[in-house]
Amino acid sequence: MPTQLSETAFPVDQDGGSACPDLALLRQAAVFRDLDDRLLTRISAVSTVVILGENAPICRQGEPADRFYLLISGQVALSNTAPNGTSAVVEVIPPGGHFMLPTVLARLPLLMNANTVAESRLIAIDATALLNLLQTESALATALLRAEAMDFRAMVRQVCDLKLRTTAQRLGCYLLELSKDRAVNTASMRLPFDKRLLAARLGCRQENLSRAFAALRSLGVETHGSRVILHDIARLRDYSEPDDFTDVECA
Amino acid sequence: MPTQLSETAFPVDQDGGSACPDLALLRQAAVFRDLDDRLLTRISAVSTVVILGENAPICRQGEPADRFYLLISGQVALSNTAPNGTSAVVEVIPPGGHFMLPTVLARLPLLMNANTVAESRLIAIDATALLNLLQTESALATALLRAEAMDFRAMVRQVCDLKLRTTAQRLGCYLLELSKDRAVNTASMRLPFDKRLLAARLGCRQENLSRAFAALRSLGVETHGSRVILHDIARLRDYSEPDDFTDVECA
Q1: Which residues of chain B does A86 touch, with a Cβ-Cβ cutoff of 8 Å?
Q2: Around Cβ A38, how many Cβ atoms within 10 Å?
Q3: pLDDT profile of chain A (251 residues), mean per 10
Q4: Entry pTM
Q5: What is this model's ipTM?
């Protein structure tokens, strides 16, 4: 049975260390990468390391946003359940990512459910303590405002993606994002999660995802289960037309 | 020819008043509704009232985010243009709304284009001055963090909408949102913008929007040009399954 977070008792780090994360662990989250030791020490003091098994619930939509989460390893799916019970997978958070920030900062009820997809190591930061730190730590405020803006941009990208692209193009863009090395024209990768979740993340039915993979075959996309080979990245790029959003800070 | 904003000269309020907005005008924006006079006076000092004609460009994606905008009257469409030139309408801002906040707060380049849909009165707030005010005005920080979270939630809602609902259901949800009075079962309204823009906002082709209106006819949705009558809100709600997101602040 998956471990479930409770209000009173967090599972302690299985490495046997303290429940507070060390600074190197905090820096594995992109949002805190550039903060200095003094500030990270203050953040660590209000944080807890949490290890959860596969498919474990972390928090539920409608609950108060009492923790900001960093994902160190594993994967977390964020979803929203409609009144009729259907669920949309809004995002799958990769290691180094974070979730629930805008809701924590605005003290609103959670908009999404969070569940682990694979066994995951997380850092849970107490929301009230984080908001208190914000009052005096301007470097933290800057980091969080920026992270919140990046979260917003990620959602805008998805909205554009869903409005402008076919399922096959969305899948193409997703595979192109997974292939980090832009210098070469071929790539081999493993899908980070199963096709059921991938379909939900892309906003299509599983049978449409299969059709999309079939459509991409003629563009040099070869699949063997979760392993994917891109034989002609330039051609896939021409077809999928990925965004070229610039996320470089202005002077 | 529509007036275009330039770096050096803002058009001055046509009422002949000062280019700085008065406090009552600033309070017409939901984001600033609850701020006190002292703080609003400081905000007013770094703000300019701008009046633009129909279809006027306000700012372009890729440009530095040097102004935060409040919309007092009129309508503004936010869009993103893909590398191939196709555009997605991400959102249409109604009077009382705001735009470009996350990008301003994070000092990132603009992610979207903003254009007036109808003649519009806006308040443009200098980004650098706003960020300076944020350092000392915690009520402003709270208001902006909350507004940013609401912006994020609006995008999450759209993502869920696009992933879970058909075009006809999305149109149904949109019409239900326009009909504010939840107590009665009928409503009459005027679409706030033309069907071309409505199709783009809903993320469908114009012919699909026509099909969606036709599909809703049997659910009591009657249209005459831009006028829409909902004869059976309960039935439309059952069909469209709108979200029941709670946006009430936690204690």
Answers
A1: 164
A2: 10
A3: 42 53 96 96 97 96 95 96 87 96 91 96 97 89 89 93 93 89 84 92 93 96 94 93 62 38
A4: 0.87
A5: 0.86
